[in-house]
Structure formats: structure tokens, C-alpha cells
Sequence to fold (160 residues):
Amino acid sequence: MKISFLLNGRQFETEVSPTERLSDILKSNGKIFSVRTSCLKGECKSCSVIIDGEVVPSCMIPAFSVRGSDITTLEGFSKTRDYHDIIQAFEETGASPCDFCRGGTILTIQSILERFAEPEEPQILDAFSGNICPCTNIGLIMDSVKRAALYRKRKRLGRK
Fold:
């Protein structure tokens, strides 16, 4: 069956079978390399994408179900100003997610910052629950989220 959706702001059309996962078509047909599959159970979050504003594990999404959706991957998000707030926060806090988990971590942080102007520890921990990346200290990730939130607040107020 043929489906179409927005992929990183551009119309994307492809053929899918009823059993294909979104992660599969993004990698093979969409040439999206930030979507990594490991657990195929939605637990590791390395295949995370944003669908219609919500971070989801693409390995758990049937490809046919995204018809008409707006999907953002790390490739698309990395071209935004919001992405640079998160990267700057990583650099300043010393947080360094491994390449395998980096995309899911960044998109999860973006999701937190879209929901909470000043995220608190329980909100951050809840968003990262189930993330099995052992490479990054969650304390540094929390510091990065709070710092990125501060950058965005300053931008809203017209300060540097």
C-alpha cells in the first residue's frame, strides 16, 4: 500500500507492507540514519522520532499507521535553533550521550522542553524512564535539560 506523510518538513511517499515498522521504512526508503533499532520492543529509545509532536519508538509503530502524519527525526530537528540549545547545554554540562542513544536522548529532551518551560527533576526522570543507555549519567542529562530550558527562557525574554 502507498502512504504519504511529512518527513522532516517534506512530503514523503512510499510503498509499505502491512508488517513493516516505521523504523524500517525510515532507514531503507527515507535514508534516515539516526533511527537505530536494537531491542525492537520500544525500550531502548534509540529509534525515537517525533510523530505529530510526540516522541515515540519508531520500531513499535506500524508504517501504514503514519499516513498523513508529521514526522521529525534527528536529521530534521538538527536544523532547528532548538537543537542548538540542547547541544550547547550538553557541551556546558559535560553530558555526552553515546552515538547509539544520542538521537533518542535529544528528541526526548526536546519533548520535555515543549511541555515544560521549567522542567523539574520528576518530569525529566519520567520522560527518561525506560531508557536503557548506560553510557550517560542521568544527572548530567538532567542538568542539560534545565540549562537548555534556561537558554530558551532567555530567548523568549530577549536576553542572551
User: Anything to note?
Assistant: Helices lie at 22-28, 74-77, 81-93, 99-115, 121-127, 138-156. The radius of gyration is 16 Å. The chain has two domains: 2-76, 81-156. The beta strands are 2-7, 10-15, 48-51, 54-57, 70-72.
